[in-house]
Amino acid sequence: MQGLCYPRAIDAYQFTNCCTCSPNHAQKAFCNSDLVIRAKFLNDSSTDMFSESFGNYSLIKYEIQTLEVFKGAAELQNLMFIYSSMEFYCGHDISPSNYNKEYLITGPSWNGRVDVNLCNYLVPWQTLSEAQKKGIEGAYNCDCKICSQWECREDPYNYCRLNGDSPWDFYPDPQLDGLELNDQMCALDMNGECTWQPVDT
């Protein structure tokens, strides 16, 4: 997923905050998120926020219609809004032309509020492979973990690695990772080790 940089001046100092995300997998996004839903975007507005670290900043407040909840606490079951920032959090900018289209949305929750950025899965539902849809709908198991090459350090038997040419290869070669990303999941094999396996579609 692409990272973007946004310059921002705070307290007379100019700095650039960049977002770089490791290669993501639908199963990894599912397991690492507090919320996983299928939803439609309905509208958007802006809201002002403040933090001691960044001062005043604006968030895009998206109104959504939740169609199906795959993962989420009770207070998130009827979620009506999600938030994103285009200032320095590598936010998602959803065009009004894509409103009323179905999206897979994953993200973290803080006190019942869900903020999404480019490191979260936010993709049109129709662009997912059949294996990814089956995984999100129940095939994915979080007993095994997925990591990129630069993340895999310990407990190799509990992880499946996404291929990459180097520890700094955040955007892997699609020929190496296409099958893993689109059609496979990380699951325990008969020997009790985590390996790449096809999703039964």
From TrEMBL:
Assigned keywords, A-Z: Disulfide bond, Metal-binding, Metalloenzyme inhibitor, Metalloprotease inhibitor, Protease inhibitor, Secreted, Zinc
Pfam (any one): TIMP
SUPFAM superfamilies referenced in this protein's UniProt entry, alphabetically: TIMP-like
Disulfide links within the chain: C19-C90, C21-C119, C31-C144, C147-C194
Listed GO biological process terms: negative regulation of membrane protein ectodomain proteolysis
Domain called NTR: residue spans: 19-144
GO cellular component: extracellular matrix; extracellular space
PROSITE patterns the UniProt entry points to: NTR (PS50189)
Coiled coil listed as a keyword: no
Cell inner membrane recorded as keyword: no
MF terms (GO), sorted A to Z: metal ion binding; metalloendopeptidase inhibitor activity; protease binding
Compartments reported by the entry: Secreted
Primary localization: secreted
Binding site for Zn(2+): C19
Family note: Belongs to the protease inhibitor I35 (TIMP) family.
Protein name, UniProt field: NTR domain-containing protein
Naturally occurring in which organism (per UniProt): Pleurodeles waltl
